[in-house]
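Model: You mentioned two targets. I'll fold them one after the other.
Researcher: Yes, keep them separate.
Model: Target one:
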Amino acid sequence: MEQEVVTLLSRRELDKMRRAGRLAAELLHHLEPMVQPGVSTLEINDEAERWTQAHGAKSAPLGYHGYPKSICTSVNEVVCHGIPNAKQILRTGDIINVDVTLILDGYHGDTSKTFLVGQPSPTAQRLVEVTEKCLYLGIAEVKPGARIGDIGAAIQNYAEPQGFSVVRDFVGHGISHIFHTAPQVPHYGKRGTGLKLRPGMVFTIEPMINEGTHEVKVLKDKWTAITRDRKLSAQFEHTIAVTEEGVEILTSLEATVLA
């Protein structure tokens, strides 16, 4: 198996990643009050684009391999890459993942969160809670000398006993001045396997957890991925850096360093 070549970021580059990550976190926080019944996903997209431009940044997804909008809005059975549109109106009981990536001074900040719209079902609420816990369990595995497989194992070993499944077709990824690069970060796997983590590595952890089967299907628009059984899916994402002490979350509203 070919070894992934991973670029270690310099201190100057990490500072740029921190600024981009912080701004992405602020954008997601800014959009949160809009996630209400009666609001279209296009309205959320358009506000994200306005806010991003007003803060001197660019929306990374817009035009990326032909993607038509500025953010991804994945509602209910949509696993990821849902395209905002005017006809998709949020309803009470929905869940929606809002995924934002912006470019500031050439570097990317990438983060997402699944929001509850109005009063969700108990199953939807539990799925969202478990998925968020999966993200932080994965982050807690990150430190120098750990392995990529440790991250996926922690997530899988928590999600599956809860009765949920872990998406295989989409994974976390390295990120810097390039949107998607090595390493790939699966959210399932075995401890002690995969690439060894080193200070200066920066990548996303973004578990997608499904209510039913882990299998997904991409729609004819070539972007929107849905659960094959049409049951719910949730996702949370942070961009993180491996540090000498452990891990730093770059897309948090608070500076977050975990030893």
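Model: Target two:
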Amino acid sequence: MEKQLLSEWLQGRELVYSFLARVYQEGPNQEMLGALAGEQFLAELAADSQNEDLTAGCRQMQVELAAHREDLEAYHQELQEDYNRLFVGPGHLEAPPWESVYRSQEHLLFSEKTLAVREFYRSFGLESKKKNQEPDDHLGLELEFMAWLCREAAAKVQDGGVCEKLLTGQKRFLQEHLEQWVPALTADIQRAARTDFFRGLARLTRGWLATDASEVEMVLVEIQKEQKG
């Protein structure tokens, strides 16, 4: 695969993963809402994809953002309340954002799945910046890890190196972790959210991960063929 194209693909993926990581960790602030309403990020993301969930999710978010462009302060407050009800609390969470809750029989935090994610980070020399404050398997942290892998791979390519190991890590993390629980989480978000922003975000997230997993697989095959040839 041509070096410039590979680098741009990795950088584009880092941008999407970083955006999703920020939304799931913090919720959308007013600055982000203003940028999303005024920029073409969601439109371009939808235009570049044939995945129905991804395109429909982007458009759902766009429509609601456009409708609230003139009252972003009030809209931000509405979204923050929805975010807290879904992911933070207090009280019952409609969509708990931790892998262990969805993948352990007892639906508890800090199960063996949390430790498996921690070990995956460590295998790349990383430790969660929120260790002992937030379980390592929070969706925002898992997405941030994917963004980091994309950034490191792009740097490797730009330096003339091979990014196969980093791409293999992304493939494995998608298969062994994100794809194992995010579809169920996003179904819960779609069911329980009161705003189209979060209903759309759920579809965008599910569609993005499905599309990205397929693309990573194809690029890895191409890189491996080039190395053999």
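Researcher: Noted. Anything on target two?
Model: The chain has a mean pLDDT of 95.
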